[in-house]
Design brief:
The complex is a heterodimer of chains A (952) and B (70).
Chain A (H helix, E strand, L loop, with lengths): L18 E6 L2 E6 L4 H7 L25 E2 L18 E3 L3 H16 L15 H8 L25 E3 L9 H10 L4 E4 L6 E4 L16 H5 L5 E3 H6 L4 E6 L8 E7 L2 E7 L12 H5 L14 E2 L8 E2 L2 H19 L4 E5 L5 H15 L4 E3 L6 H10 L17 E5 L3 H4 L1 H12 L8 E5 L8 E2 L2 E2 L2 E3 L6 H14 L5 H7 L2 H12 L5 H8 L3 H13 L3 E5 L1 H4 L4 H14 L9 E4 L6 H6 L6 E2 L3 E2 L3 H11 L11 H9 L5 E5 L3 H4 L3 H9 L3 E6 L11 E4 L8 E4 L4 E5 L11 H11 L9 H11 L8 H7 L2 E2 L43 E6 L24 E4 L1 H6 L7 E6 L3 E8 L7 E5 L27 E7 L5 H13 L10
Parallel strand pairs in A: 1-4, 14-15, 14-25, 16-17, 16-21, 17-20, 21-22, 25-26, 26-27, 31-35, 32-34
Antiparallel strand pairs in A: 1-2, 3-4, 5-8, 6-7, 9-10, 10-11, 12-13, 12-27, 18-19, 23-24, 28-29, 29-30, 31-36, 32-35, 33-34, 33-36
Helix pairs in contact in A: 8-25, 9-25, 9-26, 10-19, 13-16, 13-17, 13-19, 16-17, 22-24
Chain B lengths: L2 H15 L6 H12 L2 H10 L6 H16 L1
Helix pairs in contact in B: 1-4, 2-4, 3-4
The chains are: A alpha/beta (952), B mainly alpha (70).
């Protein structure tokens, strides 16, 4: 397919159900009421010239190019700002219009550089196209004054800003306002001095508040804002629609290619998760895919003190299989295990768990969701009956009250945050939704342009359950429950038991204030708003799950939603914001040691029999080891081999010293990844992985949306990841013969009722499908629990607050909580290998001014961060975003190793680590700790690759 | 914390969080049965009830008896 940009209808789609028929250039067209004449024309295939209009932002009516004539009306109205009316007769091409348009274009071109042949946008420039469309052949003006010759701004690592090419259409400003919601751009000056400015006139793009989402670049009709890659490579020649491999939003992109070279990733307007928007990671930070540090050949070594030796794939598979067999024979089959990745596809994940269960002969399979959303699985399955969020992202458009707890969507899930912010700002006269934020930090969404949370409850880390129970106390004791909903949809006895519990005086906001540090009156007001403010939607993240009561908090959230009737329709619900791209999918695919795909317990004989018959093996009926249990068993000397696909447990898992001890105790650690990550320091076999650009498969995002991932280039390592797992299985004697991931999905669908209607063909046809996809719901299920809960009656669970065992005291008086930042992703293996380091080159420790002053610490100082588990050093930034007594850092940089400090404490139900609460002390420091120095030396030693001796 | 100490901590933590259940001993036993691998169960059965809260101890005993009975 030759390159074509996505069709631009000029103005946004109307959601009206009322149809309007009109005539445009003699042809009848019927569109929803509220549609612009410009869009109606575009829908019937008539292209009205335009410059300031694009369908991602509201019409503006400034360029005067889209003029039309309408029978019975005077003048020549702009088609972008004129709504259709029944019976309207529109003419888009008349001699009068042609003359007017040519005159307008002549003025534009008189102040535009005529360097089309050497311009980066040559062939992909709307100004060029429109000049052609209106038949402009010469410019009569001898212009003495222009805005040409201005200095370019190259500061952003991904796009250039050339003000000389700007036509002052304001599309970029409006995209920043309406699509992204950052409001970073403005128009400085007037007339010839008009200039787009990022922030203050003194700011360049990099130093401004611009978050580099790319919305302005996409909106720009000229080469004023253009991707550096397009400047370097040229315009693309074809495109493939695929799914981003960063966060759980799961944005759909067009990978725009030139040969096998990726030119740019452009958000796809028909993507149902992102609706045409993107963030700095998905849009721009894909350079890691071709990074020089990628490992492209398999490597093996007998001991981790040896250098690596490159081998061919055949030798790698034979050696790996023989090592696994040796260890199984010597120590027993339970000495083996595997970890699936939330970064890999559903099909790859399915194969890894199948390899462990059917090949290794045990259930020792776990996934990185263990350390993020395993409490979501437990909590929502217990209360609602299924381990997933209840809504689609579109649902937020109908929310009246948005409650965010333990999530920082503008950094962690930026594209969804933009949609949420749009709803919070209100639109077209509709007032914005109200906002409640429960978070120890004043996250950006608490107060940002045109948004201010009605209530921010800055709780003490570790007291989520107490805060939610206090909110439930208010809702129940003040009679704000939705009794009709509860009687119809939930178990009334369980509700009564729960209501009696939360009503106890000990659970009042006033009584719990000394524990939570949340003002009781503020909490009461927040509870009343959630219960009575209309459609209430709860969004939560790892600030909920990564606690010793993570599962309890998820259940407390579910209790609140059920008690107020906020389940089962648009605008409401319980929405876990998933961290990685395929956390939902990895969980769905049976990555947990106690569950087969589709969340069915391994002890369920009927389900086991289904898989046994399909796979031709006998399955163990006992649950296997979770990641922390694997490490314990390794230290005990009974767990000896680990196949780790696409996860870096040494950097991402808590208490690094314990993780390294566990890995060091194993005889065969197999790392299957793009890079020699931190875990690979302890590996004996390295199997090079492929990027999301190099393989086919599917990811499932936070709204249960199964989306195609399409191969746009040949894997640099030679094999897609599913092929690597298959070849390993074959080397172990398993009779696997998949020729394409679609066959793996067919097997998943055959064995998993909620995926019964899923196939690659259906996904190609629909674009994406939200599970359950069944005979009853062949097109998927955007909203769950509409007529009843999956488990039957919704279950209220009493969630008593239990303080964490991690206590502050004289030695460790501060509480450390951790999180992520917009420009970096997880352990940074990908984003650290991109220009995103321009925004976040190192992890910083946020500390309150009072705590900093007590310790004589200034912003930029090196500080030692010490806990009972270990210590590290990093630089401080003094800020009142954190409350006194609380410090915060990110975990994106291996050199910081924030998890040297985090502890072994974990969620009571799932062992999800308690990353969000660690008692620490901060002190001034002169440099790296002993651990950091030793670790750096170990890394250098461990990454040596044997070089061949040249033949004489 | 060695593995047995960690298992004791985990069992007590489960018992504390399920204390408000209608039948806490059964709930704790069921949780451990569903989520602990056979070696973890074996280790805590072998350890006995030292350091376990009453509910956790009763649950472990219930599970151990069931296993022995089987």
């Amino acid at each position: 397919m030759t390159y074509q940009p996505q069709k631009d209808f000029g103005t946004p789609e109307s959601r009206s159900n009322e149809a309007v028929s009109l005539t445009i250039d003699g042809r009848n067209v019927t569109v929803p009421a509220g549609t612009s004449v410009m869009r109606a024309a575009a829908e019937q295939g008539t292209s009205i010239p335009k410059l300031c209009a694009t369908d991602s932002v509201k019409s503006y009516g400034s360029c005067r190019l889209c003029l039309v004539e309408i029978d019975g009306r005077k003048g020549t109205p702009a088609s972008c700002t004129t709504p259709v009316e029944p019976g309207m007769v529109v003419h888009t091409q008349t001699p009068h219009l042609a003359k007017l348009r040519k005159g307008v274009m002549e003025l534009y071109i008189s102040d535009h550089p005529l360097d089309c042949l050497t311009c980066a946008a040559n062939g992909d420039c709307e100004l060029q196209d429109q000049a052609g469309a209106v038949g402009l052949r010469d410019v009569r003006y001898d212009v003495q004054s222009t805005h040409l010759g201005q200095e370019k701004d190259h500061s952003n690592p991904y796009f250039d800003f050339d003000p000389s090419k700007c036509i002052a259409c304001s599309r970029c400003i409006r995209a920043c306002d309406e699509v992204q919601g950052t409001l970073a751009l403005t128009m400085e000056g007037r007339g010839w001095d008009s200039k787009i400015s990022a922030g203050l006139a003194s700011d360049n793009f990099l130093e401004s508040e611009c978050v580099s989402c790319g919305a302005c670049v996409q909106a720009c009709p000229t080469a004023t804002l253009v991707e550096k890659k397009v400047v370097e490579v040229g315009t693309p020649e074809r495109s493939v629609v695929t799914t981003c491999a960063y966060c759980g939003v799961g944005c759909t992109f067009r990978a725009e290619m030139r040969g096998e070279q990726l030119v740019r990733m452009v958000p796809y307007k028909d993507g149902k998760a992102n609706r045409g928007h993107s963030c700095v990671k998905g849009r721009f930070a894909w350079g890691y895919a071709q990074h020089q540090e990628r490992i492209l050949k398999p490597m093996i070594r007998a001991s981790i003190s040896d250098p690596w030796r490159e081998v061919e794939w055949d030798e790698a598979f034979a050696y790996t299989a023989s090592e696994l067999k040796r260890i199984s024979d010597k120590y027993g089959r339970n000495a083996l295990g595997g970890i699936t990745s939330s970064r890999c596809t559903n099909e790859e994940t399915f194969l890894v768990q199948k390899l462990v269960r059917a090949g290794f002969g045990n259930n020792n399979v776990d996934t990185c969701a263990r350390v993020c959303h395993s409490p979501t699985g437990y909590g929502l399955k217990t209360t609602f009956g299924t381990s997933a969020g209840t809504q689609d992202f579109d649902s937020v458009e109908d929310s009246d009250v948005i409650l965010i707890i333990g999530a920082n969507p503008t950094d962690g899930h930026p594209v969804f945050a933009s949609r949420m912010k749009r709803r919070l700002r209100g639109q077209d006269g509709r007032p914005g939704a109200k906002l409640i934020v429960i978070d120890p930090r004043r996250t950006d969404i608490v107060r940002s342009p045109r948004i201010e949370a009605q209530h921010h409850l800055p709780l003490r880390p570790g007291t989520n359950v107490a805060v939610l129970t206090a909110m439930a106390h208010v809702i129940v004791t003040e009679g704000l429950v939705d009794e009709a909903f509860i009687r119809e949809r939930c178990d009334w006895d369980e509700f009564s038991h729960w209501a009696e519990f939360v009503s106890q005086a000990r659970n009042s906001p006033e009584n719990l204030q000394p524990v939570t540090l949340v003002d009781a009156q503020e909490l009461r007001a927040a509870a009343r708003l959630y219960a009575t403010g209309g459609n209430g939607a709860i969004y939560y993240g790892l600030g909920v799950t990564e606690h010793s009561q993570g599962s309890s908090t998820v259940m407390a959230i579910a209790n609140l939603a059920m008690a107020t009737g906020n389940i089962g329709r648009r605008g409401v619900g319980v929405n876990p914001l998933r961290g990685q791209n395929n956390v939902q999918g990895a969980c769905d695919m049976g990555s947990f040691p106690h569950e087969l795909p589709g969340y069915r317990h391994i002890s369920d004989g009927d389900t086991r029999l289904l898989f046994e018959n399909d796979w031709g093996v006998t399955l163990d009926s006992e649950p296997g080891l979770r990641i922390p249990n694997m490490l314990d068993a390794a230290v005990d000397g009974v767990f000896k081999a680990l196949y780790c696909q696409g996860e870096d447990i040494l950097q991402s898992d808590p208490n690094t010293a314990h993780v390294s001890a566990g890995l060091a105790a194993m005889e065969c650690v197999i790392v299957h990844d793009l890079f020699l990550n931190e875990t690979a320091n302890y590996a004996h076999i390295f199997l090079p992985g492929s990027t999301f650009l190099e393989k086919n498969g599917t990811f499932t995002n936070a709204e249960r949306r199964i989306q195609p991932v399409r191969k746009v280039m040949t894997p640099m390592n030679g094999l897609e990841d599913w092929e690597v797992t298959q070849r390993l299985a074959q080397a172990m004697g398993l009779d696997w013969n998949y020729s394409h991931p679609s066959e793996i999905m067919d097997e998943i669908a055959r064995l998993t009722p909620t995926f019964a209607g899923v196939s690659f063909a259906r996904l190609d046809e629909a674009g994406s499908l939200q599970w359950p996809v069944t005979e009853d719901a062949p097109d998927g299920s955007p909203i769950m629990h509409i007529d009843g809960f999956v488990r039957g009656k919704g279950k209220f669970v009493v969630t008593d607050y239990v303080p964490t065992d991690e206590k502050t005291g004289p030695r460790f008086p501060l509480l450390l909580t951790t999180g992520r930042i917009l420009s970096q992703y997880n352990v940074g293996a990908q984003t650290r290998r991109t220009d995103n380091v321009a925004w976040h080159p190192e992890d910083l420790l946020e500390i309150h001014p009072v705590d900093a002053e007590d310790r004589g610490i200034k912003s930029g100082d090196w500080v030692k961060l010490a806990s009972r588990a270990g210590e590290t050093t990093l630089r401080a930034t003094v800020t009142d975003r954190v409350a006194p007594g609380v410090v915060y850092t990110t975990f994106h940089h291996a050199v910081t190793q924030a998890n040297v400090v985090t502890t072994d404490y974990s969620d009571w139900a799932t062992n999800c680590p308690e990353y969000k609460v660690t008692a620490v002390q901060i002190s001034a420091s002169n440099g790296p700790t002993e651990w950091q120095e030793e670790y750096e030396a170990l890394s250098a030693r461990s990454r040596r690759v044997e070089t061949g001796v040249p033949a004489e | 914390m060695n593995t047995v100490e960690r298992l004791i901590h985990m069992a007590n933590q489960i018992a504390t969080n399920l204390a408000t259940d209608d039948a806490p001993v059964a709930a704790v036993a069921d949780h451990i049965q569903q989520f602990w691998d056979p070696r973890m169960k074996m280790l805590i059965f072998a350890h006995g009830t030292d350091g376990l809260s009453p509910v956790a101890a009763a649950a472990i005993k219930q599970l151990a008896d069931a296993q022995n009975g089987a």
